[in-house]
Amino acid sequence: MINRIDSLGALAAIIPILKSAIPADLSIALCDREKFLAYWPGEEIDLNIQAGQPLHAEEPLSMAMSGDTALKAEVPAQYYGFEFIGTATPLHDKEGRVIGGLAVQLRKHSELIGIADRILRSLSSANEQILQIAQGSNGLADVTGELLGLSDEAERNVKNTDAVVSMINEVADRTHLLGINAAIEAAHAGEAGQGFGVVATEIRKLSKQTVDSTRSIQSTLGSFRDVTGKMAESIELIAKTGQEQALSTQRLSSLIDEIRAMSEKLNEFAKQL
Fold it and tell me: What is the rounded distance in angstroms from the CA atom of residue 47 to the CA atom of residue 75?
């Protein structure tokens, strides 16, 4: 048997050396037939075994010694909070009698696999949300494009209205001139032209009211033109922002795809450990 030793104390002296020489995070427990003699915890795996702690009959070490056979088992996380692989090996003296046991616990990398899986799920969810944002950005760009077209049309209509107002002004000026000429002719006609003079006066009043109204319309149209101009600038800014957002989400989506590919490789690597 290769697991024959001079004494448990001699083995305990060399276990720390062997443990430090092994490139893995593990813990080692040494016991006699009744109790634990020593325990060397790992950096991330510690079962909190104390020297002098008695062995229970159902423990792997007790079973390995009573059956004189080496045992190996995967211990689920529900017992110690993390998953590990444990071995229990009986130790013999020079005559082949079982005098103790050696247990080794090696941390499994299932947590690494779990982390990689969670990363993949999170990235998939994030990518779906980013795609929704990108679709929203594209929709926003379409809407702002339509609004910008409507704003341009409104500005053109304002310009057309300016032309109509200018025409009304011209008609009012001519009407006013006509009223003045009519008043002059009424004065030349004397008493016979008094009725015609009243009509001329009313024509000039109407002309003045028309001029005042067109000035008010022009002022209102000017304000409306300023508003539509500012609205057009705002819409252009929104459209530009939407386009930049769409490009940003596309770049972010590409980055997430790269991270997801790396996570898949990490998952494959962890399964091989």
Answer: 12
Which pTM value belongs to this model? 0.44
Q: Order of strands across the sheet with 98-107?
A: 36-40, 26-32, 98-107, 84-92, 71-75
State the total domains in the chain. Answer: 2
d(CA 108, CA 74): 9
Q: How far apart are CA 220 and CA 231, in angstroms?
A: 16
Residue 223 structural domain = 113-272
CA distance 245 to 134: 8
In a domain, 121, yes or no: yes
One domain for residues 117 and 164: yes
Strands 71-75 and 26-32: unpaired
CA distance 273 to 163: 82
Alpha-carbon gap, residue 225 to 230, rounded angstroms: 9
With vertex at residue 269, the alpha carbon angle to CA 267 and CA 273, rounded to the nearest 5 degrees, is 115
* Cα–Cα distance measured from residue 231 to residue 234, given in angstroms and rounded to the nearest whole number: 5
**Which H or E run includes 184?**
helix 110-189
Residue 140 and residue 214 in contact, taking contact as beta carbons nearer than 8 Å: no
Residue 68 — left, alpha, or beta (φ > 0 → left; ψ -120 to 50 → alpha)? left
Of 92, 75, 80, give the one whose Cα is nearest residue 11. Answer: 92
Q: What is the distance between the alpha carbons of residues 167 and 161, in angstroms, rounded to a whole number?
A: 10
Same domain, yes or no: 69 and 127:
no
- Claim to verify: residue 62 and residue 122 sit in the same structural domain: no
pLDDT in tens, 134-176: 666 666 666 666 666 666 666 666 666 666 566 666 665 666 6
Give burial (CB, 10 Å; 0-12/13-18/19+) of 168: middle
